Amino acid sequence: MYRKNENLIAVYPGSFDPPTKGHIDIINRASKIFPNVVVAITYNYSKNHMFSLEERLSMMKEAVFKIKNVKVEAFSGLLVDYLNSINSFCIIRGLRALSDFEYEFQLALMNRKLKKDVETIFLMPDKEYTFLSSSMVRELTFLGGNFKKFVPNNVYKKINKIEKKRRKNV
Ligand code: PNS
Predict the structure, then answer these.
(1) From the CA of 79, how far away is ligand 1's center (Å)?
(2) CA–CA gap between residue 52 and residue 39 (Å, rounded)
(3) pLDDT above 90: residue 1
(4) Which residue numbers are catalytic?
(5) 24, 152 Cβ separation under 8 angstroms
(6) What is the pLDDT confidence band of residue 165, given thresholds at 50, 70 and 90?
C-alpha cells in the first residue's frame, strides 16, 4: 500500500449521471492535493440511471482530459475491491450540505468495515455548487429546462445530442 508518496492514488467514485460542474470542482481540488486521482464511474444500484456507463465515462473523460494527474475509469462491483485492484486506500467524496452527511457517513463507515485501512476524505465544492446535483440536472433535462450553466460544455453538447436521438426514436 502506498502512503505519503508519489504513487498514492486517490479514488473519486460516483455515478456521475451526468457529470456536473460541482464534480469537476471537486476533481480540480483533489488533483491539487493528491499526486494521482482516479475518477471511478460505476452503477449506483439504488438509482435509475439516465445515461449509460459508456456515456457517463466519455462525458467525464472529455471534461477532465486537460488535468494531467487525473484518470477516468469504470468499475463494477464493490468499491473496496476496486481500490484493492489498483492499490489504493483513499476515497474522495464531495460534501455539499448537511443533507449529504448521513448517507456519506454510512458509506464511509461501511467501506471501512469492508476494508480496514480505507480512508474517506471529504472535499467541499465552491459555494456556487452547493445546491447542484446530477438529479437536478436530470430533471431539467427531462423537463426541457435550461441546464447549460450547471454542466461542463462538452457534457451540455453531449446530453443535447443524446436527447435529440432519443426523441427521434420515440
Ligand atoms: O454518485 P453516487 O451515486 O452518490 O455514488 C455512490 C457510489 C457509486 C460511490 C456507491 O454507490 C458505491 O460505492 N457503489 C459501488 C458498490 C459499493 O461498494 N457500495 C458500498 C458498500 S455496500
Answers:
(1) 7
(2) 16
(3) no
(4) 23, 47, 96, 134
(5) yes
(6) confident
The reported pLDDT for the residue numbered 166 is 84
pLDDT tens digit sequence for 127-151:
999 999 999 999 999 999 999 999 9
Helices within 10-71 (DSSP H only) = 21-33, 53-64
Q: Output the nine-digit C-alpha cell for 53.
A: 456507463
Count CB-CB contacts under 10 A for residue 32.
9
CB 57 within 8 A of CB 41: yes
Output Rg (C-alpha) for the chain, integer angstroms: 16
How far is it, in rounded angstroms, from Cα 103 to Cα 83? 20
Strand order across the 70-74 sheet = 70-74, 36-41, 9-14, 90-94, 119-123
Label residue 167 by pLDDT band (50, 70, 90).
Answer: confident
Structural contact between residues 144 and 3, judged by C-beta atoms closer than 8 angstroms: no
Q: Whose CA is nearest to atom 6 of ligand 1?
A: 14
pLDDT tens column, 49-106? 999 999 999 999 999 999 999 999 999 999 999 999 999 999 999 999 988 999 999 9
Q: Is the CB of 18 under 6 A from ligand 1?
A: no
Q: Nine-digit cell at 41?
A: 464511474
Nearest Cα to Cα of residue 86 among 6, 11, 143: 11
